[in-house]
Amino acid sequence: MFDGETQMHFSMFETICGAMQEDERIETCATCGWEGGLKLPVAAVAELLTPDTRFVPYHKAKWRKWDLYVSSCFDVAWLARTASWVDTFHGVGEKWVATENRLYMVHPLAARYDRLLCPNQRLADQFQEHPEFLKTREALRVTGMPRSDLLLCLNTAEVRSALRSQLRLTPDAPTVLLAPTYGTDGLAHKFGVEIIEECLRSGVNLIVKLHSCSYLADPRFNGGVDWMQRLATYENHEGFLHLPYADLTALMLLADIMIADFGSAPVEFSLLDRPLVFFAIDQQAKLRGGDRFQYNMLCSAGGNAVATKQLAGILALLVNGDDPHAAERSKLKRCFFYQPGSATANALKEMYPLMGLTVPGNLVQKYFEKKKADVVANPGRFLGLSEGAISRENDQRSE
Question: Are 71 and 3 in contact (CB under 8 A)?
Fold first, then answer.
């Protein structure tokens, strides 16, 4: 059972669930045990995981017997029957709880879990400083981040061409992905409109993918802006795409350049070794940057932009092939990703024994070969643009 609330949560399970579907001994299901309810169409859950993954409403799921419960963010889900619990975490962004001097992901609710699959050693070290948050010492495992394996497996000219063919992009123009985090101190709230207009004046293709929380009707998250309505004003502009339900991994593969602020997305983008424009917002660092280790690394890897008036010049340099921060991006990648490309296999090695099973020898390789062929044949589905993914109606996969 995979439990999530948003597109981001379910995307963290994509490679794990996909590989498990290749094992005829396993049935995969999904639910949403979050009090606020599911924040994406039910059909989009299956698009993110696999078509055979059945969605079971939480009011039914909590009474059933599951062999394994998997989340990517700690919440207060309750199951009536005993199961092994695993958390994959939901990114590599180092946001801190300032009042307690700990990473947000180092959470008291982690003590409910039999396995914590850490994406890097820094997160594991933080848990070691809080043993009261661990169910057992054996619960903590460093596996890498499974979702990131897709960036390496699918980073080919064939895949990128297939993805581009599905979108209304200007031929031969570079593609910029704007992927900011949420909140009143976030890039979207502070400079979002200015950045969009500057990019459009620069003649690039611009894809906007806001954080899932930016679309919530809560000013703490959306900054008092209805982003669906605001971004609709640009929808007829050549080269502009707002894709709220698209798969972030697919969009990163498409992008030649990313623009972002303090969060997990720009760190993940470093795996592709493509230019990053990082907007340094000091308020983010003060409120959630903790020791500023990751924040400072992002500043070095992304050029440390502080105002939109710098953007035109930065884009011009990057488009012309001037990439002054490649070495710093490489350091970022090495620090925050344990064994990139092997994280899915590492995670399954930890999860299967909890179900009393062993991992078939060729399972992960078989999954990635099939995934690559499927993406080339059905790029719209991988992007999250198929009819099922954008429908807000429940389909037959929902009970």
Answer: yes
